[in-house]
Each structure stands twice: as C-alpha cells, then as structure tokens.
User: Fold this.
Amino acid sequence: MDNLFNRKYIVQGLFILVSLILLGTLFYIQVVSDKYFLSAKINVLRRIYTFPARGVILDRNEKILVQNEPVYDLMVIPNEVRPFDTLALCNIIGIDTVKFHKNFRKAVNQSRFQPNILEKQLSVEIYQTLSEQLSRFPGFFVQSRTIRQYPDSIAGHFVGYIKEVTKKDIERSEGYYRSGDYKGKSGVELAYERELRGERGVVNMM
Assistant:
C-alpha cells in the first residue's frame, strides 16, 4: 500500500516537472526568442535619409539668385566597420588620421547601428575617386545632397544665408532636423525656410 502511494506521488511529480519544462520552453520560444529577434531586426535595419534639393530663388525677371550645387557626405555605420587601411581612406578624402578618429568616435557615440556623417561635403572629384575604391572600406558609404550657391553676390544681404542647425534648432523642429543639417538663418532663406527646405525622405534598408 505504501509503495503504491509513493509511486503515485512520484508519477505526479514527474508529470508536473515535465509540464513545467514544456511551459518554460514555450515561454522561451514565444517571448524571449521574439524579443531577441526584434532586437536583431532593429539593429540590422538601416534608416537612410534622403535630402531634398532646397528650392531655387529667382528675382522678378526669373534671374537665378540662389541655386544648388551637389556635394557628397561620407557616412559610416560603426557596427559594420571591419579592419581596413585607415591611412588610405584619409588620403582619399583629404583629412588626417587625428580628425578621422575624432569623427569616428563622434559617430559611435551617436549610434553604432545607424548611419552617421564621418566627413561632410566631399567634392565631385573626391566622390569619384572614393566610389571606385569604396569596397575596400566596409561600413562606409556615400550619401548625396546639395549645398547653396549664390551667383549674384549683390543680392546676398537680401537673400540671406543658411547655416548648420544647432541643438536648439533640432529640439524645436519636431523631428525634422538632424545633426549636420542646414537651415535658413537670415533673409529670404530664413523667412521661407519651410517652403525652401522641402520634405526629407527615409529609406529603410536591411
């Protein structure tokens, strides 16, 4: 009788133990695994911002007062960088290794998993040379945008100028501006900032 009673509790104990193991496995699959999957997905997903060309400004006779000139920014995703020839990259883009490491640390502090500017406003010539060798530098890519060109210097005081945004500009922009962006600071450039700046686009890439 006692042996039968003991076997009964042993079987019940084994059943409870197996049930707990199955429940724990199910929890891991449905909750923990999904959590890590989403985390990995977020880390891999790139948000590439596309910059609109700022509006051209004409006078009443349709003479161009302000136009755009293409430039290229060297971007970096720190987490995707692999060992490479730092000096070779610096020679191509025209900076020394001290500035390179300073800019790279700044990019790391902003985000290891999203694109950050390493060097701004590369010329067309530098861009062409870099494009031919970009495969040597994993984690780096080039993003195009435009800067302002003022053919008529006489109208400069009326037209105004643009300048890189400050921390306050970013905070007040409701998410539009990011570090490295430019906005109108005086004259027509400031007065018609919303009309001239256009709408920024975002491309999500895996």
